Every structure is written in structure tokens, then in C-alpha cells.
Fold this protein.
Amino acid sequence: QVQLVESGGGLVQTGGSLRLSCAASRTIFTINAMGWYRQAPGKSRELVASITRGGSTNYADSVKGRFAISRDNAKSTVSLQMNSLRPEDTAVYYCNAYPWLGPDSWGQGTQVTVSS
């Protein structure tokens, strides 16, 4: 079953902004902290940002001050506002629980490409 669906990616120039959205199943969203992950070409998947059920957030050093994660408890969605984008932000972005649920839990992700 598809339980995590990402959207909002696209092509943007350096310095631009994008807002990613993730629709999660109510079960996943309700019992877990949530996170945004990304996988750049030739790189391992990494955690970008996380948010607890209570709204506490953490960010990778590379995105602090530029990205903001949020969640809508009523809609079971989690968003990632990305500002001041850089070419090194180019990656496929995924949402998942934090910690992630397992190898078969990933959605399709959404591609973010930042041109220099």
C-alpha cells in the first residue's frame, strides 16, 4: 500500500524556493515523529529535517536557517519549506517516519533540481 506520497518538487534556480508536501497515512502520522530525507546523485539517503508529534524540529547542519519543516495534525501532512536553494540541494526528497520505518516503507519521492 502507498502510505507516503510526496509532491512539490521541481526545477528552480539558485536562491529560489520550493515547498514540498507529504501525505501520510493517519496511522504513521499519529504515532511517529516525521522526517524529510533526501538522496543526492551518488550519495546515501540522509535525514534533512524531523519534527516530533509535539512540533519540536531538528535540521541537518547543511539546511539550518534555510529549510523549515512543519506538520498539520488535522490533515496528516508534513511540509518542507525550502528557501535559498543551492545546487547541492539537488536530490530526490522523501518523507518518512523518524526513525524511518524500513526498506519497503519509502514512497516515490519528489525530485528537486537546483540549477547554478
